[in-house]
């Protein structure tokens, strides 16, 4: 299965972001804490040039806390400023502004020494679909200014927004690369809802999800679906068949797949992180 999704507005946004970078001081890159590497767009490294970058590891409440700490350390080693956040919480606003000032400390000091009047920090907010950009923008600005939802691709326009007197923000549509050469990355994104379900084979995604939890969080998946240790040794398809029956859906594997995916997305199996920091390959930038 080759997962592809690249709406026309995303190609346009890529061009416009490149043009508007010269107007911003810092880049706020939003990633999903459950997949901090897989939810980054690989083309952005080239597109974003040498601007200071603050990687906001969002949805940290849904992720494995130990893994999130390791990923924060990873991004710092890569030269980025990093902050784990939950965009639904008000406290993230002060934390982000404080971290942005830290990232721009030299510039702010330089402007002050040149006698320039202090102004708001100008930031561009980027990220792939469904990492929580709109929720974050609404939180920073203090009102509902961006359409939000659990479907990828909701935010399609670009607009400058004020966050008090300290921040001016440019929101951008989610950008996803045209094709996933690494299909495991595609499956990870699909499992968290970053790709429209209509583009997927749900049984493939459910099998991937069950296999992941069986390996990394076995006690959780055993408790949720009444499985034994021996059950977890089954092949992916056989495990999905068993779980479907345990759920009372008989041989309706599509329904079983949907339930497994919903359970994972809604946190019914607890907090989890799909990208494992201990398996990170620095050379190729993949987890």
Automatic annotation (TrEMBL):
Domain CP-type G, chain residue ranges per copy: 14-178
Q: Which GO terms describe its cellular component?
A: cytoplasm
Q: Which GO terms describe its biological process?
A: translation
Q: Which PROSITE patterns match?
A: G_CP (PS51721)
> Where in the cell does this protein reside?
Cytoplasm
Q: Which UniProt keywords apply?
A: Cytoplasm, GTP-binding, Nucleotide-binding
Superkingdom is Bacteria
Q: Name the SUPFAM superfamilies for this protein.
A: P-loop containing nucleoside triphosphate hydrolases (SSF52540)
Q: Name one Pfam family in it.
A: MMR_HSR1
Q: What InterPro entries does the record tag this protein with?
A: G_CP_dom, GTP-bd, GTP-bd_ortho_bundle_sf, GTP-bd_ribosome_bgen, GTPase_MTG1, P-loop_NTPase
Question: What molecular function does GO assign, one term?
Answer: GTP binding
Indicate which residues the UniProt annotation says bind GTP: 58-61, 130-135, 174
Q: Which family does it belong to?
A: Belongs to the TRAFAC class YlqF/YawG GTPase family. MTG1 subfamily.
Q: What is the annotated role of this protein in its UniProt record? A: Required for a late step of 50S ribosomal subunit assembly. Has GTPase activity.
Q: What is this protein called?
A: Ribosome biogenesis GTPase A
Q: Where does this protein come from, organism-wise?
A: Candidatus Enterococcus avicola
The gene it comes from is ylqF
